[in-house]
Write a structure and sequence with these properties.
The structure is a single chain. With 154 residues, the chain is α+β, with helices and mostly antiparallel strands. It has a single domain, classed as Aldehyde Oxidoreductase, domain 3. 29% of the residues lie in helices and 39% in strands. β3 and β4 form a beta hairpin. α2 runs antiparallel to α3.
Length: 154
């Protein structure tokens, strides 16, 4: 399986990551792009700032890729990129791209990749709000703004 993992301060490119995973044996390329939205829990967000120790974060991305390969052996390639630094409203902060022979495994592996990333990646997010700043863990959040699996956001 071909892989590409990166933590970068540069803007993310979905096209570049799709190009990295495109494979003649694959009939499906599944993507997820997470973008900065303008609100969180009814508060106006001005922009986000992400921090990470890149070597450790890239190692964890590689571990996620290893998990994907074990669960979906037919996956041809995986690319995951996470941005650090300031990310404006509408800009991509994370992209997961998976290619596989068929759509079901590509879609399932892509969903697994973003879910695992949100659960284990050591990236910290500062939300700059109209009325202050809040540091948050990079943890899954449901539609209501609550951290998944119960509890309040940090």
């Amino acid at each position: 399986m071909r892989t590409h993992y990166e933590i970068t301060e540069s803007p993310l490119s979905l096209d570049a990551l799709v190009e990295r995973v495109t494979d003649p044996s694959s009939g499906a390329v599944a993507t997820f792009t997470g973008t900065t939205r303008n609100s969180f829990m009814s508060k106006a967000v001005q922009y986000l700032e992400y921090e990470a120790y890149a070597p450790l974060a890239e190692q964890v991305l590689g571990e996620i890729g290893t998990e994907i390969a074990a669960r979906w052996p037919s996956v041809a390639a995986v690319a995951i990129a996470h941005r650090v630094g300031r990310v404006e409203i509408g800009e991509a902060s994370v992209i997961v791209v998976v290619s596989a022979p068929h759509r079901r495994e590509a879609l399932a592996a892509c969903a697994y990749g973003i879910d695992r990333l949100k659960a284990v990646l050591p990236v910290w997010k500062k939300e700059v709000l109209a009325d202050g700043k809040v540091w948050r863990e990079n943890a899954p959040v449901d539609r209501t703004g609550e951290v998944e699996r119960g509890g309040e956001p940090p």
